[in-house]
Structure formats: structure tokens, C-alpha cells
User: Fold these one by one.
Assistant:
Number 1:
Amino acid sequence: MSEILEKKWLKEAVSTVPAGFSGKTAWQSPSNIALVKYWGKHGNQLPNNPSISLTLSASKSETCIQYERNDSSHLQLKFFFEGKENPAFAEKIQRFLNQIIPYFPFLDLLSLAISSSNTFPHSSGIASSASAMSALVMGVLAIENKLTNATKIDLIKASYFSRLGSGSASRSVFPVAAVWGKTAFLAESSDTFALPMAQQLHQVFQDYYDSILIIDSGTKAVSSRAGHALMDNNPFAPARYEQANKNIQELYGAMQIGDLAAFIRITEAEALQLHALMMSSNPAYFLMQPNSLAAIKAIQNFRESTQTPLCFTLDAGPNIHLLYPAIVRKEVLVFIKNQLLPLCANGFWIDDKVGQGASAI
Ligand code: PMV
């Protein structure tokens, strides 16, 4: 499937830009939180196992691209992050755009001024690569549409190229939830792009909350890139990939019928397994902090004593994503305030929930 798409996109690639072509396009794209985690990759950003995520709404990047035809035959790029020119980020973006230029040759005939910012603080410990890369790709596709007079962005194409910037970015463009990675139970699934899942899921997940508890706002000691690479020699890797395949099928089934008990069991097991993989890497490392464990214990105790269907997941960091349905929002807010905020860095948390994916602003 992806080979057919790649050929089609190469064939349709736009390589001319009319004189005087200029304009501006602005996009927002959210972060996402994986439930079954992508951890370990090969080739050009291909996952070693399938993953499923909830698309967020409050944690997002906003990216504006001003474009203008240039006559140098080379992409000219300026990048501003949170209002300030940022040559280090510009270099990263330039490398990424150079990689995708065979599919978007018109970029070589443009000068771009890209301004990007995140709605969550830079130092919140929330990874911004998924939201930032997907917002950028939406902008590139919007410029392509302007050149071809097309009106709709192909989200599969957006997902494919976002993936090349950051694997998890492939899942951010879709509303509510997405699956990325080939898996036997979803015939159309692919390692090169994610699929939208909103339509297949039970109503309860269309309005699900993710209260992100910032346990530590510092940068990670080991980057995701290094973490993925350590999976290559992790002795538990084969068992992990088998588990992930089983978990995603079971979780997907639970999410279709709204089985919250199974959702909670698999989501928490996945979070702990991700961190167990880090602890069993060579060299071993761990990203949780004492307060991450204290919050996990508090969440599990609260669930047991009140029967409230809430659970936690973790990204590659110490912060806790507290997931729960809208119906228990009120009591969970009281629980957060009384028991969890004292464990957060300066009492900081992000009130997030599932959202609708990327959109123009
Ligand atoms: O997309 P990357 O390369 O930043 O890796 C993301 C890895 C996790 O966030 C830990 C899991 C996931 O599936 O998003």
C-alpha cells in the first residue's frame, strides 16, 4: 500500500511555482498520548510494533508559514520559535524538509519564514516533536494545495510525512485516536502512516480526559531517539513486540465496546512495560521520579477505594497522564487537587482531553 502511495505522490509532485506566488498558512496540531507504546524502530522511522494513541487538544503547536517564490533554486528558510529566531531548530527543520523535497520539489523555489509556538510551556517536560512536526507538515501540504488549487488535505499523506519527522507525529493529525504500525487485526494498517480510529470507538472515548501531572519539568536524561536505539540490544525486545501486538488487539476491542476495566488494565501494563524496558536496557536507565511512583500508588488506591474508573499512563519521562471519562470529572478534579497536585513540580498540571487533530487557524 505505501509503495503505491509513494509512487503516486512522486508522480503528482509539484515542481513549478508561478512568478509572484506568495502567501501565509497557519496550522495547529496537537500532541498525543500513546496507550500501547511505540518503542524500538528500524529503517527510516519504521516502528518495531504497532501503537495506539489518544489525540490531545490543549497540548498543541501552532505553526505559521509565510512563503514567497525565490529565484535561487534552493529552499530558503528562517525559523522562529516562540517569537525568536532559532537557528538550531532551523537546521533541524531544513534537514527534515531536504529529506521530503523529492515529494515536494516546489519547496526549492520558495523562501519560507516559519513561526512556531507551543501552548504548553517549553520546560513542562512535554515532548513537542509530535505536535510540531505534524503542524509543519500540514502547512507544507497546504502550500502544495494552493499550487494545485486543491482544497482538502489528505490526512494519510500528512501522517506519512509527519512520521518522517517524528514517529509519534504520524498519529497526531487524526481526531480522537489513531493506530500506527502494521497489525494483523487491522487489514489497512501500515508502518508508514497511521489510521484514524474515532469512528470505531465507543462513545465514552470521544470525551476522555488526560490530566497531565508535571512531576518534573526538566529535560530527559536519555532522549527518545537514544531510547529507541537501546531496544536493538534489549534482551526482552522480542517478547515486548509480541506483547505489544497482543495488547493493541485487546485494547482496541475494549475501546470499541467501552470496556473500561480492560482499558485500565492494559493501559497501565503498557506504561510500566515501557519503563521496564528502559530499566532493562544496556546501559540501564530510569526516567520515573519518586513522585511518579507516589502518584501511581495514589491513583491505584483511589481507584480501588472509590471504584472510579481512572488510570495512569506514562510517556518517556516522569510525568503522569491521568486518564478518565467525562462522567467522573468532578470527583477526579477534587482528587487531583487534594492528593496529586502536592506531588507535582510547583503544583503544575495541564488540563487536557481528547481533541480533533490538526486544523487550520
Ligand atoms: O516519536 P518519538 O520518536 O518521539 O517516540 C515516542 C515514543 C513514546 O512517546 C515513548 C511512545 C509513543 O508511542 O508515543
Number 2:
Amino acid sequence: LQMEAELKQAPENQALSVVYQPILSLADQKILSCEALARWQHPERGMIPPSEFIRLAEEGGLIAALDMWVLRQACKQTREWQKTIPGAADLKVNVNFSDKHWAQTDLVDRITGILQETGLVPGDLILEITEKALAENRTLAAGLPGELQALGVQLQVDDFGKGQSSLELLACLPLDALKIDLSFVSNMQEDATQMKIIQTIIQLAHNLGMKVTAVGVETPAQRDRLEASGCDFIQGYLVAVPQGCQQMTDLLRLAFANPTQNDKERA
Ligand code: C2E
Ligand code: MG
């Protein structure tokens, strides 16, 4: 209970922050987006992993406020990068959305408000939702994604492959991409079955008109196999670990200043 109370106060105590991890497009080797990830620096306990405090926030009914706080920071920061970093005008941002949000009736209005306030174009916001949200909230899921699509916001399914996705829902909902769960990628070199699962997910996504991001890419060998299998985007320590705002600004400046091999070939 004490931790919950502390978590509630964390944003105003400057104990909550957002770090960013780049997502790289394999087709042109450019940074397409950054995933915003929440961090909680507890005054006595130190850094609390998201796996712990997100659960705490969900159980304590704080998750909607926390996710909205992250969303506002992430939209504001991304708009800033778009305006100040040459070449980054189309940079997008991925924000995680807990299952609990789907019960909020004013969700679309709140997201619209944050976009207007920060100046980020809806098409530059990508919401990451879980398979669980789709499976558990069938009726809500049918309406809300359509409203978000009408607004122009992109929707991706996070941790894909670990939940209980309904193939029917995947086919009929306006989803832009699937993010392959990190556990498949970490074992793909050693375990042929994991590689087959990845290839099947890529094919499924492409057949349904969606893109695919592989999360947890740590080695060039993993990247090469994913690229050969048709994966669209990668995210992982190979590209960069999650970064604070200042470090991410430096990284983006460098990335957008250096033309990629593809750019050189096109020129
Ligand atoms: P996620 O959305 O699947 O985010 C990716 C996680 O994988 C992040 O962990 C990231 O640091 C980690 N990761 C990325 N690349 C690699 C890699 O190459 N190797 C390894 N070992 N790990 C990698 P993180 O930051 O600890 O976040 C864990 C989870 O907490 C997230 O998983 C997400 O589900 C949740 N989360 C984080 N921030 C928020 C938030 O603001 N709202 C909500 N609802 N959930 C959040
Ligand atoms: Mg995510």
C-alpha cells in the first residue's frame, strides 16, 4: 500500500521518468520510431523494474493515470525531436497501453486532447496493446480500435505469440503491426522451433496486411536471419538500449545526420 501511495506521487516527485528505445526499419536502416518505457527511481529502493511497478499500478488502479502521463511526455518529447532534429520530422513514438484502459469510455477524447496539447500528429503515435486486451475485451475491442483508427493513431499488438490471440480478431481489427515477443527472438539461433514460429508470425502478419517488429534483437546474426525472413523492423540492444532523453537526442542527431548505405545508393 505504501509503494502504491509512493507510485501515485512519483510523477510530481520527479521519481518517474521515460526512457526511449529506437526501432529500426530494416528496409532503409532508418530509425522509424522510439518506444517510450516508464522508469521509477524509488528514493530508498532504487530503480524498480517496470515488470513490478506496472503490476502494482494495475492492481492499485493507477495504471490509466501512469500510462496517460507517459503518453503526454512521449508525445511532447517526440514533437520536440521532430522540430529540432534535421531529418526527424516523421519520427514516430510507440507507447505501451495496459489492458485496463479498454474500460475507459473517454479514452479517445483523452488521447485526442494529449495530441492537440503536444502538437503531435495522430499518425505519428503508435499504441502498443496486448493480446490479452484483445482477447478479454471482445466487445470493447470491436469499437475502440475503429475509433482510434478513425483518429489516425496506429495500433500494434505487443508481446505477440505469448497470449491468446483470436485469429478472427487479428484479421478484422485495424491493426498496423505485430511485435514478436522477445522470448522467441532470444532463442531463435539455438532452437529451430522458435525460428519457425517467428517465420510463421511474419507470414501471418504480412498475409493480413500488417508489418512485423522483432523485439530483443541483440546480435548481428539474429538481425540477419530476421531480415532474411522478411521481418520489417527490429528493436533491441543491437540497435540501442533504452536511453534517457538527452542520450536519445544525441543518438537521433547522429542517426539522422548520417546518410545510410541505401541513401547513398539512391543518390
Ligand atoms: P515491452 O513493451 O515488451 O518492452 C520491451 C522490453 O524489452 C523493455 O523492457 C526493453 O528494455 C526490453 N528489451 C528491449 N530490447 C532488449 C534486448 O535486446 N534484450 C533484452 N534482454 N531486453 C530488451 P522494460 O523497459 O523493462 O519494460 C518491460 C515491460 O514493462 C514492457 O515490455 C511493457 O510491457 C511494460 N512497460 C514499460 N513501460 C510501460 C508503460 O509506460 N506503460 C505500460 N502499460 N507498460 C509499460
Ligand atoms: Mg512494448
